[in-house]
Amino acid sequence: MPKLVPMKHYLIVFIFFLSFIISNSYACTTAVISGKYTKDGRPLLWKHRDTWSIHNKVVQFDDGKYPYVGLVNSQDSLGKSVWIGYNSTGFAIMNSASYNLNNDTIKQSGLEGRIIKKALQTCATIDDFEKMLKKLKQPTRLETNFGVIDAKGGAAYFELGNFKVVKIDANDPAIAPNGYVIRTNYSFTGKASIGGGYIRYETANKVFSEAVKNNELSAQTIIQKASRNLTHSLTGTNLWDYAGLKKGNNQMVWFVDYIPRRSSSSSVIVEGVKGGENPNLSTMWTVLGWPLASVTIPIWISDSEKLPDLVTYNEKIEDAPLCDFALTLKNECYTYKWGKNSKYYLNVNALINADNTGIMQKIKPLDDELFKESYSRYEQWRNDGLNQKELQDFYNLVDEKIYNYYRDNFNLSIK
Q: Fewer Cβ in 10 A, N or C end of the chain?
């Protein structure tokens, strides 16, 4: 007769399994960058988002003290939670989940997105946000790293647990000698060796270190070299080594602990302003949907509250069109369906190949063009002021260009 296994053993296995699921679902890679070390002297806030909610949209809000734009789950029709965004004062905020701050059994609320929304509604500076955090009822039921920048040059993380908040200042050379602070899914003030994202942290750090050395730390560099990075810092694997294979030579690889992941839903960078510049010139560089199959759209706060159609909710598809396009192409990369771990196998040949017809290879020219045109407009508006009619014309141009590109190159359109 088989030996009975005590119920507590099943509970331990269940808890371990649950922690695995959580750490693989909320596995964001983020950074706060001081303007002292960026290419053009403006601070940056980066969130490469990993989540179970892979359908994302962008919304402009006018429900607080300040107008603001933010990344929202597509099914969040009321916009109750925001996951990265900025407001009209130039204050910007995002977060990454941490798993090594709270060594207790207090149930977490998961309401970081509500905190971000409230901060965007009410905060103009990092000091405002710090005061807001210190007023939270304890235990906070939160375990997270909040990253923030403001129009006064502030750039910092706040590592927040149930009973403690610690500020990590990216402008402090003793803390950030190269002007940036990276956080994945652990906190430096938490217990060492637990949590998650150590491998992704090292990968991102290599990209940032090289960019600082070459004076190339910019939104474009981070998105194209970090958000779409195909190297694994622990094993030394570089998936670009498979780029020599002809199209159709499927090459399945174990795709875990890279910065981009199966659960990556977006990658967003808020580029702040220099002292004295109009805070409305802050820019939210937005890669909506799976970042390896999407392109970058700049978002500015609009007087008309009209954003590009591609990033806003479309009732017909119940998603933002760009997100829908990227997720459709993502399916071409995950074709192996046998076994419970099949979801971790990626066909890298669909992304890059010797024929230069891989998804990443085909979107690169469009992404480069969008950055070039955006920076050109950006420079003009810095000198002349943000022209709202020109902004809407530019949004229309971006929509048309991207819709046509995905139709012509991937046969994708809104059905």
A: N
